[in-house]
Amino acid sequence: MRKILIGLGVFVLLLVVAVVAAPFLFKDRLRALADKQIAQRVRAKVQYDPNNIDVSVLHSFPDLTLDIKDLRVIGLDSFSRDTLAYLPGLRVGLDIMTVIKGQEIKINTVELDRPDLSLRVLKSGRTNWDVMISDSAAAAKGQDTSQVRLAIKGWKMTDGHLRYEDLTLPFRMEARQVNHTGSGDFASNVFEMTSKTTAGRLDMTYGGVAYVTDKQLDADVTMNMDLNKNLYTFKDNKIKLNDFPFSFAGAIGLPNATDITYDVTFKALETDFKTLLSLVPGVYTDKFKNVETSGKVAFDGYYKGVQNALRMPGYGVNLAVTNGRFKYPDLPQEAKNINVKMVVDNPSGFTNNVKVNVSQFHLDLGPNPVDGNVTIDGLEPMKVDGRVKANVNLAEALKVYPVPGLSMRGQLAVDATGKGTYSKTQMPVVNAAIKMTNGYVKSNKFPAPIEDINLSGTVVNTTGQVNDTYVNLPQFHMVLEGEPLDGRLTAHNINQPVFDANVKGTVDLTKITRIFPLAGMTVTGRVSGNIAAAGNMADVEAGRYQNVKASGTVQAKNVTYKSKDLPQGVNISSAAGTFNNNQIAIQSLNGTAGTSDFAANGTVSNYLGYLFTPGQALKGTMNVTSHNFNVNEFMVDPVSNKSTATGQGAPAKATGVLEIPKFFDLVLNSKVDNVTYDNLKLTNASGTVAVNNQIATLKNLTFNTLGATFGTSGSYNTQSLAHPKFDLGLNIKNLDFQSAFKAFNTVKALVPLASAVQGVFGTNFNVSGEMGQDMFPKLATLSGTGLFDIVKASVLQSPVLSQISSLTTLPELKNLQVLNKIVNAQIVNGNFVVKPFDLAIGDVKMTVGGSNSLAGLLSYVTAINAPTGKLGNALSGKLTQLTGVSNIQGTDRVTLGLNIGGSMTSPVVKLTGGSLKDQGKAIVTNVVKAKLTDALLGLATKNRAKTDSTQKATATTQQASQEQLNLEVQKKKLEAQEKAKQAIGAGLNSLFGGRKKAAPADTAKK
């Protein structure tokens, strides 16, 4: 016993020592290893705080646990705004002996706490999770690939959130409250992997249709893992979706680098109809366990074949419901005689070859029968043959199937048949009729009911030609809280419809959108009108509006609109207008957009073309006034195309790009008292803005800010939202140097000398370039030319002038006073080039010119002509060497040449020459010409490089497009071959008496 106690004490002591020592011994080494592995093996941005890394031995004793909190993985390029993974808690169990030895470190366990994982596949096929660099690729770079090895025996996920989106299909899946555990010896090549997964909420959509909504998942799966053959075989497994259990059998293989093979079958594990009923949206409630059911279900299918760039596995599903019935205990009626037979088969795997046969669909909703059947062969084109017939009393239907918070009554009758081919040029022969009598709908979400709903209509096509489709809705009537809405519609010739419609009444948008919610949008207010339209879309597209009969009046009050794209919202307090074939006349329009107010009137034309013909522009002339307008609220993120406003008030500064709308050809005569743009306040803004083809052309736009008057004309182009361009002529009067330097980044970067200048100037300057995402010019793209009118300027305590004064021994040059001086300048290739100009300071004359770069480097020259007697002896000696004149003091005047380099804060001034001639202007002019030539050559080189880069990118895109096209051609070819094989097989079957079909499962005996 004593030895046992001593041994136990030693063990406890060692454990305590390990707990205390582990963070100190291994934390820095493991952190460095993690940083190195991420840098070498991960193609993504990995963000975490080094202080959030901890090491311990308690959690997974005897393993060492590496604990990382708040780790985030963000993609690159197309996924640069996507968070692939956010891991609030990541624990990695490491083999402690491999850590101590410091050689290859084995990872034994991985635990994720509350992970948020988002997996995406773009239409191009690119995946956001392809971020790991393979061992072979790392080894090719000379990197060590042996430092970390997966020897995982167990893993765990707690309360996860998983999203998967594949735009190539398109398919989307989202699972919340995911808990998952798994185990298997990945250090071995052949072993069994077991896993258990639960999800509190599972949603799946395909092609925009929700097939699984808010369901629960429970899955126990055991697979045989053969890593030598890359073959994974299903063993014991049970998957339950809500109360519907099913299982898989078969195997999945990875025979090579491009193919995945499937040979999998699946089937339902129970035949009780109640299990299938649990999948119906809204059925799976607390009361579901008490629902009375009867009937049987048979469900099975297969997924077999090869998946690669060209092919997808074949698949098939069989579903049969026999004599199904259900009744909620609290409701008086039951759904009975539910009989469904459905077969989906596509052995080739090509989506276009799918065949669907719903040979029977019948149920009785209380005393109301619903019948239907349909066969579908292919998708493009689609051969269809089907019928649906129902005559349902809506009040009786709610006695069968509960919809919480919804009341309905009225008689709904539908009788529709369709047979033929559906494609871009064809449609089935259709005969469909719908009729609603004395309808009533009320929802708890909004207490106002829609009452007295009466409508009848038909859709008829007797030839199968698209343009022979006739839609007739001779009557539509409803009442919403005492406000009637009536209308009618007839139309035919689908490609270019011939239509005749009329709508009259008042619509309360608040009530309508609460009854029929608009995803991501909020709309309120009242719109009333009397609108009539009749004509031919061919006339609309051709602009022959005189052939179209359109007339009416519209009034709106307190209409509001808010969406994700426009979170600040628009509120139209009142609006009134009339319209005819040609135009809409807006008598008055008053409202606010975010914190901005506006009022408008004018005319809008071509509204029919804009509404009904893609690509046609809305034209017109509008007069717009505003007391206060905040531009910052209307910026758009150039990547997501979403508004950068938050809806919680205006952003403090401009973020995003101001987008010019597509398909607008409008002239806006505007007058705004106060404008907020970034951190500037503009007043008395007025002028004309012509908008066309996503280009805004500014004409005589004037405003006041910073105590100065601004005038501008030119254009702003957002045809490429990622690269918006501008070309403006600026006319500025009486702008203070210091105000300009503080307010404008362009002045800080291009004219750093302005930081030391006090005074007032004006300018007449033409400038063009590209706007950045913050709606400020990208300085490297600027080009321009113009002049600066220096009304009054004082340069005091400038490091540049101090050095010039010290070098020339001319104290009067320490401070400069400039009055009424015109200076010409040019912007080329990111350089601000100042052309030579003259100054006189007493009896000293100066000529100055040169340039400065975006990096703030000065490259100026100045020639100073001064009386020789003012120069000190030391400078006179140096001039003797430069000029060759021994008695320099005996001359009257001398010209000094100086170079000014460095930066504004650390200038470097050097004496470069001296002359007895007054040739300062020529010296500076020649130097500035050389600088301008160099800048232009640099710009030409940059443009050539940009062109070459664009051509290369275009060639790469074209190559990728051609490869994708070739792939699609091969797919179509294989698809056609498989379809032909199926047709030949079907023909032979028919010729020789047909193949015996498997008898349907006798679910009753089971």
Automatic annotation (TrEMBL):
TM helices/strands, residue ranges: none
Ranges for domain AsmA: 5-229
InterPro entries per UniProt: AsmA (IPR007844), AsmA-related (IPR052894)
Pfam family, one: AsmA
Domain of life: Bacteria
PANTHER family tied to this protein: DUF748 DOMAIN-CONTAINING PROTEIN
Protein name according to UniProt: AsmA domain-containing protein
Species this protein is from: Hymenobacter caeli
